[in-house]
From TrEMBL, chain A:
It comes from Deinococcus aetherius. Keywords: Cell membrane, Membrane, Plasmid, Transmembrane, Transmembrane helix, Transport. The chain crosses the membrane at residues 31-57, 92-113, 125-145, 174-197, 226-248, 280-300. Residues 1-25 are annotated as: Disordered. PROSITE patterns: ABC_TM1. Its main location: membrane. It comes from the Bacteria. The gene is msmF. This is Sugar ABC transporter permease. Pfam families: BPD_transp_1. Belongs to the binding-protein-dependent transport system permease family.
TrEMBL record, chain B:
The lineage of its organism: Bacteria, Thermotogati, Deinococcota, Deinococci, Deinococcales. Keywords: Plasmid, Signal. It comes from the Bacteria. PANTHER family: ARABINOSE-BINDING PROTEIN-RELATED, DIACETYLCHITOBIOSE BINDING PROTEIN DASA. It comes from Deinococcus aetherius. The keyword Signal applies. InterPro entries: Bact_solute-bd_prot1, SBP. SUPFAM superfamilies: Periplasmic binding protein-like II (SSF53850). Residues 1-20 form the signal peptide. This is Extracellular solute-binding protein.
Length: 313, 415
């Protein structure tokens, strides 16, 4: 019996019945396959976002079929309303604390776990684990920890520090820091992973050369490691700036923006005004402001990083 | 002859309302972590009576989850046939804004329309000559208390606010608290303030809401409102509330009452079943939150839970049959019996109440001393939320009474 199969240049056997697939016509550009997907993303994300943005200039209540154009009235209200201004200020404060603290803690963890510890893989997993946990679920656990009758006050009481016991989540000052603690606990692991990847890209010889030249550990960190870590640090900072400005779940579950707006952010205000109070127009204006803030912060950070890189080059 | 008789019987059967309706309905409502067994029981009873109608239920989380889903479905053209609403216009799922927006069917032509809603609450469901929903029952707001703990503490039920403040101090000296309160939950914190306002505002001026709507009075300019909120601060000073009240939410406050750390909880009596689900052994009673004097004390009772029929229901006859079932077919009785709410008949007479509510029976029949909840006629949900969040601000010392009332006026005027 004669074999009906044929073998191509790569050695792949093609059954005789299978026809050779014709080459695509040469006039179709190679990127054409991506057009439907790009179009879908463009329509579903960008066109929808821009179309939604129009509501920022209306008084739509989410129920009526029509919306009245009100110009910049919603934006004027944002800057004259005490609650909205407080939310804007809190957003910036949260973002600043979030960026600084998550990256500092992340850097500390990355440097520490870049050493040849026997348990380094286990510890990396432990510190990264909170990142992949549900923000809502963890916030409810922290809520239990911070409760007046909860373990935090319980430990303080057991240590004889009764005077330090507080209603952490309802204290106008401490509620802000309670939220920051939870955020830093949850997201430092992400900064750690990014920076750890950066650290492992630094050639060992450079560190060793600095050590031979007599540089102390601190000098090696500041003069050698950190400059070489700059690209990874830039990515980590950029991500934390964006996340820090859009903080929502943790605040909602921990404090619901309280007490009396002490932890309110633009994102929580967007949700409350839009979905709780049915002020879709005003809520969209807040969302637009938040978007502009995030884009501006990301651009500034990007330009600053490039300028630094050019100076260092 | 047999065949004729059979045909006649079949015709008679099909002519009965229970079999005339058929098809499928979709009902959406809010639910707690335990679901909404009461609403499901109501639906099951309806399907038993109308075997040709299948009602599919969908429950969404209480709080902001359900209002968001409801609004999205109505706005998106995917309206359910039947949906849970509350009365008036001051809440997140208040029915009158939905009527204004053209989403609910007018029920004014139903045979029960003129009789099922008490005159005092008519404005909460009627707008012009349109009826927006059918109420499921009446909800008194009362201090629901642990009767066994009351005996153990050796105190008696306070009849006036000065008595209540003294009782708080006695109870605190025994290591317990008079009231559980979710100070960080705007709905629960607002409810206590609103119940105090029933006594201090509506007690002396029953038309206050109408005057506020007409712009003739303001929150900040009303002495009764200042007294109500000052009383709340007096209660805090007297140690009436659980420790850490300003940071407590419902998961902390309800167990505090159910476990015997606090004597009472000011709640809609419809929440009694939820308290009993935490501790089935609770022996509960209820008393009216007192005003400055026993004579001036009023009780808040109004229809709140209700069902609206979608204007665009594809099976309007069956949906209307569901509304009829609630109003006159035994649905309301079934619902109120399960929740701890009361029927309009029970509210009017004070008779045949569940044993837990026996303590409020005399107050129910006091002429001109029973009012709907003060907040359900307010202009928008933000006013009540401002009050609720403001109570937390008062408890933490972030806000003064005058500043909170000014905020409420600002929220009232917001569109």
């Amino acid at each position: 019996m004669t074999s009906q199969n044929s073998r191509n240049v790569l050695g792949v056997v093609r059954p005789s019945g299978e026809r050779k697939r014709p080459n695509p016509p040469r006039h179709v550009p190679p990127w054409a396959w991506a057009v439907p997907a790009v179009l879908l993303v463009f329509l579903a994300r960008y066109v929808a976002a821009v179309a939604g943005g129009w509501y920022a200039f209306t008084d739509w209540n989410g129920l009526t079929p029509t919306a009245n154009f009100t110009g910049l009235a919603n934006f004027r209200q944002i800057f004259t309303d005490e609650g909205a201004r407080g939310a804007l200020l809190n957003t910036v404060k949260f973002a600043a604390c979030f960026v600084v603290l998550t990256n500092l803690v992340g850097l500390f963890l990355a440097v520490a776990l870049n050493q040849h510890l026997k348990t380094r893989y286990l510890l990396r997993t432990v510190f990264f684990a909170p990142v992949v946990m549900s923000q809502l679920a963890t916030a409810f656990i922290w809520r239990f920890l911070f409760d007046y009758s909860g373990p935090v006050n319980g430990v303080l009481g057991a240590l004889g520090l009764e005077s330090l016991k507080k209603t952490w989540l309802a204290n106008p000052t401490w509620s802000f820091w309670a939220v920051v603690v939870v955020l830093v606990w949850q997201f430092s692991g992400l900064a750690m992973v990014i920076l750890l990847a950066g650290l492992q890209g630094i050639p060992q010889e450079v560190e060793e050369a600095a050590e031979i030249d007599g540089a102390s550990s601190w000098q090696r960190l500041v003069r050698v490691t950190l400059p070489l870590l700059a690209p990874a640090l830039a990515i980590s900072i950029q991500l934390s700036v964006i996340s820090g400005l859009a903080i929502f779940d943790t605040v909602m579950a921990l404090t619901n923006g309280g007490p009396l707006g002490a932890t309110e952010t633009l994102a929580t205000q967007v949700y409350k005004q839009t979905f709780v109070f049915g002020r879709y127009g005003y809520g969209t204006a807040l969302a637009l402001l938040l978007t502009i803030l995030i884009v501006a912060a990301a651009l500034i950070q990007q330009l600053t990083t490039r300028a630094t890189e050019r100076r260092n080059a | 002859m047999k065949r004729t008789l059979a045909l006649l019987s079949l015709t008679a059967l099909l002519a009965s309302p229970a079999l005339a309706q058929s098809g499928e309905l979709r009902l959406i409502a809010q639910a707690s972590e335990q679901g909404n067994p009461t609403m499901q029981a109501l639906v099951n009873a309806f399907m038993k009576k109308y075997p040709n109608v299948k009602v599919r239920t969908e429950f969404f989380p209480i709080g902001t989850g359900y209002p968001q889903v409801l609004r999205t479905q109505l706005q998106g053209g995917n309206a359910p046939d039947l949906f849970y609403v509350t009365a008036g216009s001051g809440g997140q799922v208040s029915v009158l804004p939905f009527l204004d927006a053209g989403y609910v069917a007018d029920l004014s032509k139903r045979p029960w329309a003129k009789t099922v809603i008490p005159t005092a609450s008519r404005g909460l469901y009627w707008k012009g000559n349109q009826l927006a929903a059918v109420p499921l029952g009446m909800t008194p707001i009362a201090a629901v208390y642990n009767a066994d703990l009351l005996g153990q503490l050796g105190v008696s039920i306070p009849r006036t606010m000065p008595e209540l403040l003294k009782t708080c101090q006695v109870i605190r000296s025994k290591g317990k608290s008079m009231f559980a309160l979710a100070g960080a939950n705007p709905q629960n914190a607002g409810l206590l303030a609103a119940t105090l306002a029933e006594n201090y505002v509506l007690g002396s001026d029953p038309q206050w809401n109408a005057k506020r709507a007409a712009g003739k009075v303001t929150f900040a300019g009303t002495a009764g409102w200042k007294k109500a909120l000052q009383t709340l601060l007096d209660m805090q000073k007297a140690g009436c509330f659980i420790p850490g009240v300003e940071g407590a939410d419902l998961p902390q406050a309800a167990p505090a009452m159910a476990s015997g750390q606090a004597l009472a909880f000011v709640i809609p009596t419809g929440a009694i079943s939820a308290l009993k689900s935490i501790n089935p052994k609770l022996n509960l009673g209820a008393f009216v939150l007192p005003g400055p004097t026993a004579a001036s004390t009023v009780l808040a009772v109004s229809p709140t839970d209700a069902i609206a029929v979608s204007k665009n229901s594809k099976n309007l006859p069956a949906a209307l049959a569901f509304a009829d079932f609630i109003a006159t077919g035994g649905g309301s009785e079934l619902y109120t019996k399960a929740t701890g709410d009361i029927s309009t008949q029970q509210a009017a007479t004070g008779k045949n109440l569940p044993p837990e509510l026996a303590g409020i029976a005399p107050a129910l029949t006091r002429k001109n001393r029973v009012f709907p909840l003060i907040q359900i006629e307010w202009s928008n949900p933000q006013v009540y939320t401002t009050l609720g969040e403001g109570v937390q601000g008062l408890l933490t010392g972030q806000l003064t009474v005058d500043a909170l009332l000014a905020r409420m006026d600002a929220a009232w005027n917001r569109k």
